[in-house]
Specification:
It is a single chain. This protein is an all-beta fold. Helix content is about 0%, strand content about 60%. It has strands at about 1-5, 10-15, 20-25, 30-40, 45-50, 55-60, 65-70, 75-80, 90-100, 105-110, 115-119. Strand 7 (about 65-70) and strand 8 form a beta hairpin.
Length: about 120
């Protein structure tokens, strides 16, 4: 099993910064990608940023403001969030993807951390 532990959420004023961390542990084999998703009330969960074998990608809404990175072991992922806006308010979820076969993948999710940006 894989466990994901997130930290770093909180309340910040618009224009401020936060840094989220997600540490993965357990049986991590054939790691394909790690990333962050978010879900605001009434909205679907959406990709924020992801880093993996396919490269790094960001949602258009956070490009130039957020930066995703990983530690040398590749099992901790960070999300540096700058110039935060009220629209960034959401629960942020860490995601880890493991390749299970030629075309198979399995997703793991963290418990979520609340980010609230006050205007």
């Amino acid at each position: 099993q894989v466990q994901l532990v997130e930290s770093g959420g909180g309340l910040v004023q618009a224009g401020g910064s936060l840094r989220l961390s997600c540490a993965a542990s357990g049986r991590i084999v054939n790691l394909s990608a790690m990333g962050w998703y978010r879900q605001a009330p009434g909205n679907q969960r959406e990709l924020v940023a992801r880093v993996g074998t396919g490269g790094t990608n960001y949602s258009d809404s956070v490009k130039g403001r957020f930066t995703i990175s990983r530690d040398n072991a590749g099992t901790t992922v960070y999300l540096q969030m700058n110039s935060l806006k009220s629209d960034d308010t959401a629960v942020y979820y860490c995601n880890l993807v493991i390749r299970t076969g030629v075309v198979g993948f399995r997703d793991y999710w963290g418990q979520g951390t609340q980010v609230t940006v006050s205007s």
